[in-house]
Amino acid sequence: MASEVAARRDAKKLVRSPSGLRMVPEHRAFGSPFGLEEPQWVPDKECSRCMQCDAKFDFLTRKHHCRRCGKCFCDKCCSQKVALRRMCFVDPVRQCARCALVSHKEAEFYDKQLRVLLSGAPFLVTFGNAEKPEAVVCRLSSNQRFLLLDGDSHHEIEVAHISTVQLLTEGFAPGGANTRATGMSLQYSVPGVEGLSQLRLMAGEDDSRRQSTAWLVAMHKAAKLLYESRDQ
Asked: Is 126 in contact with 150 (CB distance < 8 Å)?
């Protein structure tokens, strides 16, 4: 029964929008927390010039809408077709130069960091004010909606309910070349529970440390996408 419910939640459908074909969750509430909604296009009647180079649109200079920002550009300023996975497009779509650059950077997350998060890594986790940490394997669920922590017990944290993510490092300067990720602190809300809950993940000192460090860095990048999607 539980597997049937999970299958329905992960079900997807193919839809066509003015921007192209999209493979989206059958139920909108079960979409990835990293996803972005399609923008409203600037109406043609409100756009007589390119919003980048100010070229006037006419029979030869045609207008195009960027699928990421919805603004209006000439072909020169909006000629790139780039994958836009955060909006679930099946094929690469037309984007302006600025948006194309952002989408290219995000592609690295989907091609590399997301795989690391889905594979998981071992940590010592401390929930709230607990005295003793628990050994767990932490990974992102296949639908990207939950952090799953499996050890002596099983815990699930809904990614959309994570409010803050702080990367813990050691070295000479935060973010410097001589620092390394050692752990992560997360604050999150739990439905029906007042206030924020907190946990801390710490990488061990064994042979799995490199795997754990890569997972922490990937999760930190995922958090940036999460915050960006909330600002849309």
From this structure: no
- Do 191 and 138 belong to one domain? yes
pLDDT tens profile 35-57? 899 999 999 999 999 999 999 99
CA distance 155 to 121: 15
pLDDT tens digits, one per residue of 99-142:
999 999 999 899 999 999 999 999 999 998 888 999 999 999 99
SS3 content of the chain, % helix, strand, coil (to 5): 30, 35, 40
Residue 24 lies in a domain: yes
Write out the two tokens for 109: 């997350």
Residue 113 lies in a domain: no
pTM given for the model: 0.82
* Rounded-to-integer distance, Cα 228 and Cα 59, Å: 38
Residues 124 and 223 in one domain: yes
